Every structure is written in C-alpha cells, then in structure tokens.
Amino acid sequence: MKAVLFAAGKSTRTHPLTLTRPKPLLPVANKPIVLHLLQALPKVIDEVVLVVGYRHEMIRELLGDTFGGLRIRYVMQEEQKGTGHALLQCKNVIDEPFLAFNGDDIYHTDDIAVLAGLDQGALCKTVPDPARFGVFVVDGNNLIEEVIEKPQTPVSDLANIGAYKLTPDIFKILHQTPASSRGEIEITSAIQELAGQVPFKAAPINGHWLSIG
C-alpha cells in the first residue's frame, strides 16, 4: 500500500525557522518531522509518495530513493494551491487504495494501522477547543455526515487531524471540486462530497498526535 505525504508548502507560520528549510525537516526531539512520520508507518506500507515543492532538494538529499525498506517517490507541486491540489498531482502514480497524511504532523503507528484497515475514512481526535480545527459531524456509527472548518459554535469535538484512507475515486471528485475562498482546492471539500456518496468513517485515535504549527 502507498502512503502520500503532503510536504510542498512554504509554511510562513513557522518563519523564521522555515526560511532556510522546508517544514518537514524541522527537528522534533532531535529528528526531522518527516522521519518521525516515515518511522511510524506500519508494515503494510511499502511505498511513500512525497508531494514536494519548496526546497524539495533538501528532502531528496535526506531521504534518497529508499528509506528503511520503503520506496520513496517524489511528485512535484509547482504551485501550492491546497491539499486537494497536492493530492491531484499524484493521480498518475496511485492505482489502488492508499493513505494520505499532512506531512508536518506526527502520528502513532497503531492509529495509522487502524486507518489502513478501513475501507475509507479519516483519523480524528476529541479536542476541548474545536473552533481551532476542522471537525467531523458523525452519525451513530461514526460515519462522517459533514466536515466543518473551525466552527464558531460547537457542533462536534471530533477534530480532523489530516490522515485519510482513500481510493483512486477521490481524483474524479477533486477534479470537480471548486476552489475555496482562499483560492485553493481543499481536500476537506472533496471528503465532504465523498462522504455523501460512500460510507466514510471517522476513527478516533488512541495514541499521540502532534501538529507542528
């Protein structure tokens, strides 16, 4: 199974640290974020597709073509037009169910393994301050009914933590997804559409999740 990591952005919110290197190379506990991610992937993953852009040569120099038994493939996102746009750059190299992650978050192996076992779905975490996050509204079976970005009134405390199990069907939806008010193609907009078509599960995590922001 392939795992897609979004690692193309400039991350202006982490200036000045990211003036000289891409965000996935920032060290956490003396190790680049991207290495935390790669080392957390369960054995079911045998190839990683890295969507790169800003200072991509530094990521290529660190990882090369293989890392810890994983094949590493690079896909360029020439313009940073959102996570949905980043995923669209991978359509020619994805032909089976796959995982997709924010490339600057740290997840637990056990939670990723649960995600890999779903037909389609996303990881989520119960948070005390949902207004800071995108959240999932779910039914009694934890199937996603709605995705809401940073709700001002509490509608759900299940934060979307940017980890998804998808199939190649997502690419057709992304092609039809209009740009958001930010001028970006948002993966969450496509997830909303997908959840209206097929069962799409929100899986609460049991391990750690660290968002670097």
Kindly describe this structure.
The protein is α/β, with parallel strands linked by helices. It is built from six helices and 14 strands. The protein has an eight-stranded mixed beta sheet. A two-stranded antiparallel sheet has the order 2-3. A hairpin with a 5-residue loop joins strand 10 (134-138) and strand 11 (144-149). The protein is globular, with a radius of gyration of 16 Å. The protein starts with a strand and ends with a strand.
Short description:
The protein has helices spanning 33-40, 56-63, 83-88, 109-116, 169-175, 187-195, and strands at 2-7, 27-28, 31-32, 47-52, 66-67, 70-76, 98-102, 105-107, 121-126, 134-138, 144-149, 158-166, 201-204, 209-211. The protein is of the alpha/beta class. The longest helix is centred in the last third of the chain and has 9 residues, at 187-195.
- What form results from the Cα inertia axes? globular
- Count of individual helical segments: 6
Share of residues in helices: 10-25%
Count of strand segments: 14
What class do helices, strands and sheet pairing give?
alpha/beta
Give the overall average pLDDT: 93
Identify the strand order in the major beta sheet: 5-6-4-1-7-12-9-13
C-alpha Rg (nearest Å): 16 Å
Biggest sheet details: 8 strands, mixed
The percent range for strand residues is: 25-35%
Low-confidence stretches: none
Helices and strands, in order, run as: EEEHEHEEHEEHEEEEHHEE
Please give the alpha-carbon distance between the first and last residues: 29 Å
